[in-house]
Amino acid sequence: MATIINAATANGSSAPVDWTGGTGTFWAWGNFGGATVALEASPDGTNWIGVGPAVSFTQNGVGGFSLGPCRLRATVSGATATTSVSASA
What is the CATH number of the domain that holds 19? Predict the structure, then answer.
């Protein structure tokens, strides 16, 4: 398991990480302050697609996913002055 974002305080996406394929677990935690943290996947590093509601959180959460080889990133949206969230996969 690798931390994808660490104490993010603003809207934006993490640096992409390579996923070799298979099942995984996405964790998100911290002070959401109204923000959403979602897992996104890309087949080419340019086109990003939300993995689904099981890995999109507005509060501390954990969800499973199963993907072929791709790139992964976490995206924060709706951040406020109190947002400080982390995520790992």
Answer: 2.60.120
- Expressed as residue numbers, the domain containing 80 is 3-88
Residue 5 predicted with pLDDT over 90: yes
When divided into structural domains, the chain yields a total of: 1
pLDDT tens digits, one per residue of 26-55: 999 999 999 999 999 999 999 999 999 999
11 by Cβ neighbours in 10 Å (0-12 / 13-18 / 19+) ranks as middle
- Between the alpha carbon of residue 54 and those of residues 44, 70, 80, 81, 82, the distances in Å are 23, 18, 23, 26, 24
pTM beyond 0.90: the answer is yes
- Rounded Cα–Cα distance for residues 81 and 29 (Å): 16
